[in-house]
Amino acid sequence: MQGSLIGVQILHCLELLLSMLLKYLGLPQEDHLATTRNFKSQFEAYTKANQCFADVVSKHYEEGDAVWCHDYHLMFLPKYLKERNSDMKVGWFLHTPFPSSEIHRMLPSRSELLKSVLSADLVG
Fold first, then answer.
1. Which Pfam family, an example, fits this chain (predicted)?
2. Statement: residue 72 has pLDDT above 50
3. Does residue 122 sit in helix, strand or coil?
């Protein structure tokens, strides 16, 4: 997948899915099958972008470094970094309040996202 295509899909995914959780907006009203198909492809692009970040960070990481991941753009990064190096010190920080459980449970990938964030040594 080309970098520009990944970027476009990530931005769209963030606008429609993660932003709604953080800003308490409802899901767009679309055909259910089309929304599901869209979500899957956008979510794959989102995880792929996080893997690309993990590849670059891992390449430059030196023992003793601390890695800070910021915001909902990089929710999978702690998990991917820990998979590459379990001794790496990873922190993740969200610049907005985490969505309530009522809002969070609407996201189909909620468990994966939460487990990934909780892979970090420090969450703020």
1. Glyco_transf_20
2. yes
3. strand
